[in-house]
Design brief:
Helix 12 links the parallel strand 9 and strand 10. Helix 6 crosses helix 7 and helix 10 crosses helix 11. The chain is built from 15 helices and 19 strands. The radius of gyration is 25 Å and the shape is globular. By secondary structure, the chain is of the alpha/beta class. GO terms for molecular function: glycosyltransferase activity; nicotinate phosphoribosyltransferase activity. Catalyzes the first step in the biosynthesis of NAD from nicotinic acid, the ATP-dependent synthesis of beta-nicotinate D-ribonucleotide from nicotinate and 5-phospho-D-ribose 1-phosphate.
Length: 452
Amino acid sequence: MTNISETIPSHPSTTDRSTALLTDKYELTMLQAALKDGSAHRQVACEVFARRLPNERRYGVVAGTERVLRAVRDFQFTAKQLAQMDFLDEQTKEYLRNYRFSGQIDGYREGEIYFPNSPLLTVRGTFGECLILETVILSIMNSDSAVASAASRMVVAADGRPIIEMGSRRTQEYAVVTAARAAYLAGFQATSNLEAGYRYDIPVSGTAAHAWTLAHVNEDGTPNEEAAFRTQIETLGVETTLLVDTYDITKGVETAVKVAGPELGGVRIDSGDLGPVTRRVRKQLDELGNHNTKIVVSSDLDEFAIAGLRGDPVDVYGVGTSVVTGSGAPTAGMVYKVVEVEGHPVAKRSSSKKSQGGAKRAIRTYRSTGVAVEELVLPFGAPDPETGTLSAREITVPLMRDGEIVKDLPTLQESREYRAKAITTLPWEGLALTRDEPAVPTRMVGFKPTSR
């Protein structure tokens, strides 16, 4: 299946292919001032990190890295775009006309676990070329990592049972496409969204909504649920899933089995108190001989509702609102800060927003059992510290060199598998849904105090 992002050329010629306007005006007005005083040409390092995890969660999941790299590659201004920028002088327009990011990017790969102050992305180049990438980088990483972090918690709560992403009608039409990608990265099994399936080669799932059942009535206007089910079976096969809660669930299950027989693939329930309802439906299905018919539930599920259903006979979960919107996937709170200028560490020192200056990389230490112990953040060029009996793994990896995406970047499927393994390295208490300290502490090692 073709991945749409793979078809984007390195040198876009239309605004549809350029990511350059995915930015804020002040990025370009700052650039104009930087060109005027010469600071645009200073070598800097900028860092993406989160000062804290939202809602005191125990860990986050990095997502959007590949999309960021492609956005940086395609951050090139067209003549049509520049013609509309009357607020810029000719020097700045000429700079943007020739703009191509030519620097280096290192960071955490997609699917990696992160914690407060993890150096998720380090962008190195001139101040001018790094400055104007802030908005597009943060918009992608904050959104995708928020969804992936929420989805990962749901996957853990589901304890091996599959989850389908169903959020298409709960957010902006293209936002759900990237949300579906992030949810799949985090362990969801499928999406209902065809564009997400086409663009990212994600399995797509879906059968029928309540509208289908409601559209079938007798001549006198009374409901004809059986007719709806029968046509669905004839069209999609007996392995389809029938939505049984449009009217009366017990009657719906009875009708579904009557039409499909013991080989019916599944029934879906989208309302009610799902715990007691699924127990009654499972009992009814078994009594009717449908021991292999699966029960699919939806209806505003989040990780807490999924965890609450762990002891009930649910086979598949459908999740929408809580994984694609801020209600369940609050912003990751990532920021993009200049941390080094011409080799000198710099840092913001305002109250509650203090940070450590200097370009950084990270290693993570592990016990012999494979459980993570600590994340050590080091100056970028510093050697690894002694870790005693603990093993250490490099977390920071090269992502872009001289403006070109590194070869052999992990595929979405490989990143999905990586996240699944990374989760198993967390201490067991780190998987709890309760609010608490990060599952793995982060410690700065080898930094000198940053001057004010």
